[in-house]
Amino acid sequence: MAGRAQPSGPAGSGGGAPGLLPLLLLLLSAAAIIPRGDGQNLVTEDVTVVEGDVATISCRVKNSDDSVIQLLNPNRQTIYFRDFRPLKDSRFQLVNFSNSELRVSLTNVSISDEGRYFCQLYTDPPQEIYTTITVLVPPRNLVIDIQKETAVEGEEIELNCTAMASRPATTIRWFKGNKELTGKSEVEQWSDMYTVTSQLLLKVGREDDGVPVICLVDHPAVKDLQTQRYLEVMYKPQVRVSQNYPLQGLTREGEPLELTCTAFGKPQPTDMRWLRVDDEMPQHVVVSGSNLLISNLNKTDNGTYRCEASNAVGKSHADYMLFVYDTTATTEPAVHGFTQLPNSAEELDYGDLSGTPVPLTASTEALPTVQLSNASLAFYPDSRAGEEGVIRSVDHAVVGGVVAVVVFAMLCLLIILGRYFARHKGTYFTHEAKGADDAADADTAIINAEGGQNNSEEKKEYFI
Fold this sequence. Notes:
This protein is about 15% helix and about 35% strand. It contains 5 helices and 26 strands.
């Protein structure tokens, strides 16, 4: 039988059986010329392994007949013949050997170990099947490079994420917080390795300050490989005006008013001031830092008061519209006092009107809570109106209605008289003027006129 040595003479003739080493060499030379079979009785699987890990190769026989199993490397060098290892590579270790399986492990796998490994079975005819080892290489480094460490709101910045020396090429994904963004990737190949660089263009706003930008890698050799950078965005101050007193919001004549201005920006605003938009600031108004105090309100204080704050990026403001009501006013208007307009179209997304409720956010929660000072509380009177004030307000309403009716009646009378005089205006002629057009002189005109001397005889009176 092929692959089996025959004795050269009788056992006692002195020739003897050949030794183990000549037999092994004979089998190895025969293995090199064994044709590849259809693998109908051999079973194996392809192996995918990460560089540096352990790969396990298994050659199994479905219907064992005690034939010899052999494992060869891609260069067709014998790794194991049955349970014997001719190849001097200690990374190959025997895991299991039987008549139906030969299982071998390969530790510390590298790229050079990738390729086809052959399982051979010495049957008649011989059989051969191969398994493929694929080596995965995770990215060596994952780095984010930001064009500008500190950006100003409204700017577009460039970020680059690089995954070096991987196999196969990696897929890079971008996230800003929990929102996925789209970048543009380029792949470079060096020998069997791939370097991928992804570029992201991002327009930043004040809401992006402190938000992480994450570069995440999708690769079969690694899970959850990512790196991140935190954005640092500078922006103009965000200004708000709050009314500390009166607490109920209604500003009455003779009562005090206290306003507080709060501003938050990056960098923190360094300059804050109060001004009156439509006129000069009244002399009795007291401005102390971010507070504005009016101890005794009157009608001349009506107007728009503005708080301005600025930092290195720019300037912003918030307005408070003051309307002073009579002391008898008891009902608060639907909208009173606050008006905060955006300084530019970019700020439409960042704040609502100050007169409307504003939900707590990271920026609004950071604003300090302003307490009333002892000095301002000293002159705050009790603004509650009693029953007498309610009756007085009703009397004023009745008197006002009567006056309105009288004024309306007088206006109607004047309109009627005007129309009457306009219709009776013109030139009028008497009976004495009749006949004056054809008369030569005044005496003749009087005689010819109706009722003159010529016609006097026609009018006779009879007495009975």
